[in-house]
Write a structure and sequence with these properties.
The chain is of the alpha/beta class and about 400 residues long. The protein is built from ten helices and 17 strands. The strands form three sheets. The protein has a six-stranded antiparallel barrel. A five-stranded parallel β-sheet has the order 3-2-1-4-7, sandwiched between helices. Helix 1 runs parallel beside helix 3.
């Protein structure tokens, strides 16, 4: 059963802008809404220089994708426009991506792209075109609540759910954005595309980061931030130098391979100190985190956030897109929003998102989330040496 757009008025009198990336999901979305009688306008965003990326298999939003989106629009008989958003994308997504790595973080550029480009700038363009809604091919659902507001809900297909990347969507944006594929599986979407005779029905899904044509994100960072590749020390939890590196941007929290260090037991990256250019490594148990401090928290649950967390709010959280939600508590302490993970988690990295849910599985409601500012090792009180190492 497909999600209804849940818009007032007859479909034939209702204009909907569809963000068309050239992939099967957004193409099927456009074809479906056209078949239901909506006045559909397709828009594809040119986000970066397509020269190198257009020849990379699996790259999204590249030159081939613009061609495919145009072909689908012609097939289903809707107007299609390509908008140049390169400067906006470079400033909001690519430059902040590089800056985040320079500061020892591991960013998620898709979140910023959705927040700043698609659900802010493109939604504004959709309104300028007289559209009542912006529709996308994301696997997530939107539900109308009793008070007339809308809730963001996980997709029916848990393997395709993209709610982690959409936690920063605001209530105002939810009122104007729709996700017609939220109750469908990928196989059903492809079958829908075949039924409409779309050339992209069997097109490979996009992979990796769309603006990294070589698959090496460090190439982008080195071009924008040459100083980020400065060498530094690899140290153990006691601060002893045990190796050298060629730039902290080459490492992420939890990384084991590529350290270039011979040790009697496996070592993992535990902390990245951007100020001193130190990479701190330790045993796997040093990765276990229990407390997380968040920044830029977005709340789309019921009521005001501070009222909701008064005394602590029990919830479920994801600290990485590929991990299942786990039980946690959200509190406001000394002006910060802090998460306490009931069972702890490994490899929690600053820059990643911590997304809030009201249930651990099924079509759980997304309550919001924030970006990880810092994390405290679960056993740090028992290991003062580790705490000192992480403090830099």
């Amino acid at each position: 059963m497909l999600n209804s757009l849940d818009l007032e008025g007859r479909p034939e009198d209702t204009r909907v802008v569809v963000a068309m990336s050239g992939g099967v999901d957004s193409s099927a979305t456009a074809a479906l809404l056209k078949a239901e009688g909506y006045d559909v306008v397709g828009i594809t965003l040119q986000l970066y220089d397509h020269g190198a990326a257009s020849h990379r298999k699996g790259a999204c939003c590249a030159g081939r994708d613009i061609h495919d989106a145009r072909d689908v629009a012609e097939r289903i008989g809707i107007p299609h426009y390509v908008l140049d958003y390169e400067s906006r994308f470079r400033e909001s997504v690519i430059e902040s991506f590089a800056e985040s790595y320079v500061h020892g973080e591991t960013p998620v550029p898709c979140i910023e792209c959705n927040r700043s480009i698609k659900f802010r700038d493109l939604l504004t363009t959709a309104r300028d075109l007289g559209a009542k809604a912006l529709a996308t091919g994301h696997y997530v659902a939107s539900r109308r609540l009793a008070d007339g507001s809308r809730a963001l809900v996980c997709a029916a297909d848990a393997d395709r759910d993209q709610s982690y990347f959409l936690f920063a969507t605001t209530q105002e944006q939810l009122a104007n954005v729709r996700f017609p594929l939220g109750d469908m599986t990928k196989a059903e979407t492809r079958e829908l595309a075949r039924r409409f005779g779309l050339s992209v029905a069997d097109k490979q899904d996009s992979q990796d980061i769309c603006f990294v044509p070589t698959g090496r994100y460090t190439d982008v960072i080195e071009r924008l931030k040459p100083n980020a590749m400065e060498p530094g020390d690899i140290v153990d939890l006691d601060g002893r130098v045990i190796g050298q590196h060629q730039g902290i941007v080459n490492f992420t929290i939890g990384q084991r391979r590529g350290l270039g260090i011979a040790a009697s037991a496996p070592l993992y990256v535990v902390h990245l100190d951007a100020d001193t250019r130190r990479v701190v490594v330790g045993p796997r148990e040093a990765l276990n985190v229990r407390q997380i401090v968040l920044r830029d928290v977005n709340w789309i649950g019921d009521g005001a956030l501070d009222q909701a967390v008064a005394g602590g709010l029990e919830m479920f959280v994801k600290v990485r897109s590929t991990r299942a939600p786990q039980p946690a508590w959200l509190r406001r302490i000394d002006g910060n929003y802090e998460i306490e993970l009931v069972d702890g988690e490994e490899g929690v990295s600053p820059g990643q998102a911590c997304v809030f849910y009201d249930a651990p599985s099924g079509q759980a409601r997304v309550l919001g989330g924030g970006f990880i500012k810092s994390a405290t090792p679960r056993h740090s009180r028992e290991k003062p040496v580790l705490r000192a190492a992480l403090a830099g």
